[in-house]
Prior knowledge:
alpha+beta, Heat Shock Protein 90, Ribosomal Protein S5, domain 2, Ribosomal Protein S8, Chain: A, domain 1, 3 domains, 8-stranded mixed β-sheet, 5-stranded mixed β-sheet, 33% helix, ATP binding, DNA_mismatch_repair_MutL, nuclease
Amino acid sequence: MSDIIQLLPDHVANQIAAGEVVQRPASIVKELLENAIDADASKIELIIRDAGKNLIQVVDDGKGMSETDARMAFERHATSKIRGTEDIFRIATKGFRGEALASIAAVSQVELRTKQNDAKIGTNIYIEGGVFQFQDPIQTADGSNFLVKNLFYNVPARRKFLKNNNVEFRHVIDEFQRVALAHENLEFSLFHDDEAVFRLRKGSQMQRIVDVFGRKLQPQLIPIKEDIIWCKLHGFVAKPEGAKKSRGEQFLFVNGRYFRSPYFNKAVQEAFEGLLLPGYVPTFFLFLELDPEKIDVNIHPQKTEVKFEDEHLIFALLRSTIKRSLGIYNVSPSLDFDKDPDLDAMMNRPLPSKSNGSGGSVIKMPEIIVDKDYNPFIEERNVRPEEIQNLTEMYHQNITAEPSKINLFEDEDFDEDLMRLPNGYWLFNKGDVTLMLDLGRMHRLVVSENNKTSKKTNVNTNPNSHALLFSLEYHMNEIEKTKYNSFKKFLPELGFDMKIAHESVLRIDALPEGLKETQAMKFLENLFEILDYKTEEEFMQFYLNQWNKMQSKSRFDFIYKKDAEQMIKDFTALGFPEFLPDGKRCFYEVPFNDFKNKF
């Protein structure tokens, strides 16, 4: 048998290797922005076309490259950051592997214009599909200007798996945010298809967060700070009202590098224990500063995972520091670590008095005397023995009686079949079983089916809308503004009349029938939150889900028995389904004999 193992051609090997570094346009954005920071830039501009599929351009005013360095930068494993193996364990820069530019050039058309500050002339390099084309001198500004065009033009199988522009641009924004949040001392700009999305000026950490996520977040932010010998922690967490169901605004950084850590996320979640509704996660922006030798950033191709030498100590530091800050800002109870240590001694200091030889008397805490035998439910009267006997006989008769077998739907008598529990659930006797009902979920299903029927009936007509006497204003951040532009074409047919009045203020002049003015803001927040990474085609389904939720009641809204009776009848008309489409139970069935066996 002949030999079958052979070396791959360089261009094929480079394209395969590029798959680890370049997964989508956002991967290139991350690498180029980080290179600009490593070049000591003070101003960085990102220009995107077609969500980065056709153009990704990063312009910086950093120190630039020499003619030789500009050519070497595109060779595999060429780097200025490390010289030996030991350098890997004390990385202080963003890039260091020497793979990024070679991988990017292998799957696109790349042009670089660069000039050092003290040079009279710069360098222009053009590489296509990993193949060097030319290198010429050029007049250009100080710094570097990278242009990456036609991503995956030579790997069509990879290009067809890219998502639509809205999704890909959302990933670009994510990477831009992560870099910009960690470097508030630099200026950043982002342009998409000639439209300015972000213009971030230099400022404080708080100002950078507000510039990225909008002014409405500022009142919710609580500062976090702890400085110990081996670690520094600073940043912000949002108050419980700033929590969300999605994990969009959760940011962890170490030494200016963004990283993901479910373990540390859990530490923050535990610090908010008892303060958040089920299913909600806190919003936070937390920055760690450690000795580079205490961490390893070389365990993931995208460098988004970091290994810590003392992760259990950092977990405890995050949890305790956040918990203390929540207490200081009256969000949760906390020990007062800043209390004057002399305060307790002052409270026990004797007061001036003639009755004490030392010139004072010790303060005595007041005593409260409680009658432990007192029972407010027992009247102060003598109970005759025959009364006790009668009560005992009645009790035994009740617990041995058979359950009521009233036919709910023939007699329409719920008196003996329904009982509300303090937690909002209802108990319902149906034949020989008892059902525990979640009327809120049952109502959601009824509303959903009614809306489906209404939609089929009025498929060719626009829903009615009601004009508002006074317009409502919704302040969007740049991310919400991008999402709004992706689905605004659907809004008129849904009954909305809204438009961007100025800057990022959304003016709402009309709402669809059934949506109250008091619900409008929350409804929009839900839409913006749930539309993360969703396509335009999915918008209508998400809109319908949110509309159903907005119209649905919770189980705590069903207080009166007549409302519960009607809900059960409406739900029965649907066939009394046990589950919602998302798999959640509408009721739980317990055989009556199971109750009897408990006694």
